[in-house]
Amino acid sequence: MTALSSVSAECPILVGIFEGFTWIRCEGKGSFMTSPAIKEFGMERIAAGEKRIVVDLGACTGMDSTFMGTLAGLAGRLPTQPESGIQVADAGDRNRRSLEDLGLDFLMEIDPQEADWMQTIASIRSNLTRLDPLPPPSQFQQTRHVLDAHQVLSKTNEKNTRAFANVVTLLESELAEKPESPNK
Q: Is 0.85 topped by the overall pTM?
């Protein structure tokens, strides 16, 4: 196992790289504040050839739509073959309902009983390290991240398209009005 190094003291993200999967644990609320670091880490792992990412929600107190859209975006970049994709560990009733309400249970496996890591969760969690924080994003970068996540959710199903249409339109307008300056 190779451990990597708090998004914040209040809601740290813990990670680890294991044989056959990468583990990401959200402690506290999964939100637009923590999801950029998860996206960056996940994209780095996918670029390195990772085929399976396990998202541990055992200590996650709730998730906003940006966080869930970020997870959906990562799921869309992983292969759709056995032992690949996003698997969710220890979702709990509330987080499971949130994922299912957006139809994300069709993009990721939630608490897969047959997963090879299922019997070793305690050992995995004891070998995680805090993810280093990202530099604070510019307003443009933050808005772009939130927009990207909601566009992914909107593409997931027609219900989400309707539910997030106003959010997507508002964020697109905001970005069009205030393009990122080269110095930010």
A: yes
